[in-house]
């Protein structure tokens, strides 16, 4: 059996390479794993874009099949956890970094990394969400479990036009929260409003250093930006509020003071999607399955093919796109 996959390579002579190639099942099964999955769809996340463009040292082993997301049918499994014909989702676990990922027609994975596709989600819908949507759901769940309720006040979502931001806005809105979207693309007002954003602010207002304590604006926030933006959000969060942090688009530094934490009791909560437990993954995906408006899957996501991935990756790094990109690996 042979199939198509994106292969990333790197050596001292030719440097970095990115190409669509045909590989064999025998090559694939050299990867550690116990479950062979026929991939229906994958997706392009920011981490995938970094790997596809070699803009950051995401890939740790060469050659590499990128793709941190995948959904498909189990062909065979030696773990006893899944049976042939089961539909499963993969997010993270180092795939596309240290283990061949899902921008391919087949993937050989560890069953511990997989979760069942929720009954009320299609394979396409799951990748319209992908790791970005699943991360957004983890953040929303963190805020809900913390005890924040719609009547507590506005919630801020940064990077609003991106994958995490888009899904976070939609989920929060469906759950009854008043959402403010922060974006550099203020021209995306119609897109963000349809997701459920009530107010839209220019992200530039959060990017420069400001006072350690500012006017209390947010009961909670979801931030994908980091750096000065995150510091300002903490300074603007209301007494007893929470900020769920899951990204570093502006930078990994945090030029803040302890003032919001010791004077207003603000909680800064880090959210990791790569190594999250099975139970957390299932709960996040169930939140998506139960609360996403079906019409918004097509509003948020566009479909591309394997040979279009590099083009989209470059545009994503340049900040020229919005929403999500589902990869139909079989076209």
From TrEMBL:
GO terms for molecular function: acryloyl-CoA reductase (NADPH) activity. Residues 15-327 form the Enoyl reductase (ER) domain. It comes from the Bacteria. SMART domains: PKS_ER. This is Enoyl reductase (ER) domain-containing protein.
């Amino acid at each position: 059996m042979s199939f198509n996959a994106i292969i990333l390579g790197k050596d001292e002579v030719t440097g970095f390479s990115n190409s669509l190639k045909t590989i064999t099942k025998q090559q694939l099964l050299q990867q550690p794993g116990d479950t062979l999955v026929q991939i229906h769809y994958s997706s392009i996340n920011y981490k995938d874009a970094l790997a596809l463009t070699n803009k950051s040292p995401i890939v740790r082993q060469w050659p590499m099949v990128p793709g941190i997301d995948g959904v498909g049918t189990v062909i065979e499994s030696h773990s006893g956890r899944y049976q042939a014909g089961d539909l499963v989702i993969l997010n993270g676990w180092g795939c596309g970094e240290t283990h061949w990922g899902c921008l391919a027609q087949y993937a050989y994975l560890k069953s511990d990394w997989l979760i069942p596709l929720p009954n009320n989600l299609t394979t396409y819908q799951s990748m319209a969400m992908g790791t970005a949507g699943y991360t957004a759901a983890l953040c929303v769940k963190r805020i809900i479990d913390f005890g924040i309720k719609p009547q507590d006040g506005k919630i801020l979502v940064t990077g609003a036009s991106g994958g995490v931001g888009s899904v976070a806005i939609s989920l929060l809105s469906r759950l009854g929260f008043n959402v403010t979207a922060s974006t550099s693309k203020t021209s995306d007002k119609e897109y963000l409003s349809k997701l459920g954003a009530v107010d839209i602010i220019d992200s530039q207002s959060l990017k420069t250093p400001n006072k350690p304590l500012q006017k209390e604006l947010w009961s909670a926030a979801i931030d994908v930006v980091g750096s000065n933006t995150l510091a300002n959000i903490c300074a603007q969060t209301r007494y007893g509020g929470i900020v769920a942090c899951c990204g570093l688009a502006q930078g990994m530094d945090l030029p803040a003071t302890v003032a919001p934490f010791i004077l207003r009791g603000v909680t800064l909560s880090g959210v990791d999607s790569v190594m999250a437990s099975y139970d957390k993954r299932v709960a996040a995906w169930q939140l998506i399955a139960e609360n996403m408006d079906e019409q918004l899957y097509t509003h948020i996501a566009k479909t591309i093919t394997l040979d279009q991935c590099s083009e989209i990756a470059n545009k994503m790094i340049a900040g020229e796109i919005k929403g999500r990109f589902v990869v139909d690996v079989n076209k």
